[in-house]
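Two proteins follow. First one:
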Amino acid sequence: MALSSITKKLIMSISGLFLIVFLLLHMTINFLSVIDTFTGNYGAAEGLFQAGCDIMALPIVTIMVPVLAAGFLVHIIYAFILTYGNLKARGKERYAVANKTKAESWAAKNMLVLGVVVLGLVVFHLNHFWAEMQLKEWMGEHAANPYDLLNATFQHWWIVLIYIVWFIALGLHLCHGFWSAFQSIGMSNKVWEKRLMYIGYAFVAVIVLGFTATAVNAWLHVNVLC
């Protein structure tokens, strides 16, 4: 039996909110490396970033990776399904939203494009970090030191720039996706709509600035603070 449009949007929203929680956790752990810089523990075994990576390597966290991958896959699949349905039903409208003002925003109209950019750079990111840490641990090999991996990845300014483009694209995607997800699950109304928008903007700012600070901090350690 074919799923209704409302059900598809609900699945898309729930999977998106699940990924948002992961993003916040991921950014928080990465940002610990910035805190380590100010405490003098950057690169040390007792550093907070090292502790965060150790926690992420625990078996109870590791088993969540397939769940995360499944959620990400579901989100991607339904993004294409909904976008195709919107294009087919509404012609030139590229993304269906309830509020005309929001629909006129660039991010709302280009959610799929932003999503493809984010997806491409996620693959780039997995090749840099996940493949060198969790994947090696799964294969019984010695995982890379997280600080060394940060330094090796962000030693060149152009790599930092690529990641910043990714963070901005991710932020634009989240600007619309955050309030849209809550709207789809029925939590956005006249009272909460603006509140959720401002909460979403604050969340996006934290995510983008937190990830950017991590990349720039690592570049500084290699090229300035060394």
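Second one, unrelated to the first:
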Amino acid sequence: MLTIVKAVSMFILACVFNAPASAQNTWPARPVTLIVPYPAGGATDVVGRMVAKHLGEQLGVSVVVENRAGASGNIAGRAAARAKADGYTLFLATTAQSINMAIFSEPGYDLAQDFQAVATINEGPMLLLASKQLPFSTIEGMLSHVASQKQELRYASAGNGTSSHMTAEIFSHLADVKMQHIPYIGAAPALNALLGGQVDIAFDALMTTLPHVREGKLNALGVTTLERSRIASEIPTISEQNIPPLKGFNEMLWNAVLVPKGTDTAVVGKLSQALKEALAAEALQKRFHEMGNEVTWRDPAGSQSFVSNDVKQWRERVKALNLTVN
């Protein structure tokens, strides 16, 4: 009897110690899904499709992008958090998901607790953009226009609680200018509204809006980061313009790949390494740089710390500025 018990115990221990290696060796055995929380055509979707292509080449299986728009990215966040923790469902998180943790009382998931961060992907600036139908092309001109017309500017966003929404609210608070929020379901519809003159201004990713600026379809009033973009050095930063309340204005967009909490650590490690190699691809780096983005790979521990800190910082900012999703 003791021999049988000993044999069973040894078998159980072997299964436990060999599980990570087994998971690492067998994953992935089928296509992987990358959930993108916004519609096709926006900045997050563009990043997601580029990463999916190169990641698939590293893994040897297809990485399929699934756009799940709505509720400021919370529909996608909930779906990803509740997915099976087997490494076959990835979530492309953005700055907006950190904001959602602070803005929504019940987003349906916790970005820092319900996921394991695999790797950060990139960081990039936004532009403050204005419709060509308006008679100004600088922030100073915009503020003078608002003062003389005594009416609120309408600004588009990719949805309540998104980066474009919160950045506009922070700008409004600092510049002491009232603006009317017009939310859309994603960055692409918001940009189309600005191009069509349905709204006056918007904050949006440099990577997707710079072509419209250079084609003369939109006016770029300023870059949201402290330093000018190396691919659009002709556009001044918001911070450097002669408007004291906006000195130090600095808002950055980021993307990271997450998996549901409980995913095998061996799979997380393999996926993180595959992402590192995908991001090192010359074609991807060149494309990112052309769009004003910087590749910022971090390992799982560093990425988890980054996401958790971003969530904490946005909660503090939202509380301090009394920002809402209205």
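SUMMARY FIELD: The longest strand covers residues 115-131. The radius of gyration is 22 Å.
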